[in-house]
Amino acid sequence: MGALHRGHMSLVERARAENDRVIVSVFVNPLQFGPGEDFERYPRNLEADLQLLAGAGADAVYTPTVEAMYPPGATTRVVVHEVADPLEGEFRPGHFEGVATVVLKLFNACPPDRAYFGQKDAQQVAVVTRMARDLDTGVEIVVCPTVREADGLALSSRNAYLSAEARRAATVLSRALRAAGAAWTRGERDPGRLRSVLHETLASEPLAAVEYAEVVDPVSFRPGLPLAVLAVRIGTTRLIDNHALGTPFRV
Question: Looking at residue 93, what is its pLDDT?
Fold first, then answer.
């Protein structure tokens, strides 16, 4: 959705290494923003984005207008059931409907062999993967690792909203994931106890307001193992992150 950073560039670079041509879409999709969310103030800097994409090896960039994507009277939506219902589906009703609709439209605009998504948006990846399979798109969904700052904070366009104090506080997300990972390494396999580790760590940061911190099955996003997922507000900025317990925490 623009305001591109190193995490986005890692997707382009991976695509460049594995394909003959790489096309990137930049589109701030209004359908995936709910009432009162940050659609109007979402960071946009297309000129800077285009420079980054040229350097990363993109062959073309598709930057449609809202009117081009959703002409007057357009009412068709793509709804993915089950995997889209919990967590983000509860806290952001309609969000994944907007995601699935726009991704299918982008696939139709320029049918790709592969589409590259970041692991940071783990539930989005699961929703898009299910949609691509169920609707016979023939598109292979490639999931790329989350890119982080040296202190563990996952790169996100919304990090630009953080004040210096909030930026410091935001590291509590990665600290919570690491704490759960350490518990896993010690042999803990009870999802409820691992969930408690997440919540106890997050509670140590006064600026953190937890929306959810769960350990889930990475396919259904229902309680299970081994994916730890978080959504936390640091001040007014909503951040998400996740980590597959039992795998190295990459920074």
Answer: 97
Hey, is 94 helix, strand or coil? coil
The Cα angle at residue 31 between residues 144 and 44, in degrees rounded to 5: 65
Per the DSSP assignment, residues forming a β-bridge with 208 are: 234
Q: Catalytic residue numbers?
A: 8
Please, are residues 88 and 123 in contact by the beta-carbon 8 Å criterion?
yes
Contact present, 176 and 210 (Cβ < 8 Å) = no
Are 221 and 83 a contacting pair, CB within 8 Å? yes
Q: Which secondary structure element, helix H or strand E, spans residue 100, and what is its range? A: helix 95-109
Give every CB contact of residue 178 below 8 A, 6+ residues apart in sequence.
152, 243, 249
Does this model's pTM top 0.70? My answer is yes
Domains of the chain plus CATH, in order, are 6-144 (3.40.50.620), 157-244 (3.30.1300.10)
Asked if residue 166 lies in contact with residue 237, where contact means CB atoms within 8 angstroms, the answer is yes
